[in-house]
Amino acid sequence: MFEIFAEYPYLITIIWLLIIGIAAAIIERLVTRWLKRLTEKTEWPPDVENGLILMARLIILVGALIAILHVGGVPTDILVSLSALGGAAIGFASTRTVGNLIAGFYLLIARPFHVGDYVKIDGTEGVVQEITINYAKILTPKNTVVSISTQRILDKEITNYRFKGEESNLYCYGFELSFDHSLPTEKLEELLDKVIGRYAEMLPKKPEYQATKLTRLDRSYIFYIYVENPKDIFILQPKIMREIIQAWEKAKAANQ
Known about the structure:
Blueprint: H1 2-7, H2 10-42, H3 46-71, H4 76-93, H5 95-110, E1 118-121, E2 124-131, E3 135-139, E4 145-149, H6 150-154, E5 158-160, E6 171-180, H7 185-197, E7 208-214, E8 218-227, H8 232-255
Antiparallel strand pairs: 1-2, 1-5, 2-3, 3-4, 6-8, 7-8
Helix pairs in contact: 2-3, 7-8
């Protein structure tokens, strides 16, 4: 038997190539199954599963190619150089993609917000429609969907309007209004109480307000509304704001 290998030395190379190919196929199948089970348990979205499987397959493929070149007699120093060059080329070509991938994994693990939350990210606010590896899709009050890259999200301040942590089923949204000094504070706050009082029974928690700033020219108040469905903010915020302004303008005109 060994005489055959001595007579045909290339048979050893062929056998090693077959072993490498079979081993790579088995490892790829085992890793793919493990990753699918992992994503099912963690309930990660499909694109996370696809991204992990793609990365695993790429690593296995690169490892198999290096092993094949080594069996083929390519010197170690050349293998190291080719590996470094290939890795640099792949990294340079996919810097943004890899960055988004890492950022996406971070968001899925850290979970600063969930699908359905009302958030504000880099000046864009609305209801989170979808979170993927590359983007978070936000439905805005203008009924448009804005996609923000996950890499960009990590560099920005995130405001989640969920009230008192993730366990709460309420969302607290605040907006600020300023009023001049044409009405006494007592009368102004009386009309504010009247307006927000109309929503006491309509909402799960009565709206609130508090003074935030007082200057020579005006007074500022921040108003808080509480909802269970974050999309209600789209309707309630402009409605309450309009009623407050109308009541204030009416009282101011009557006071003149």
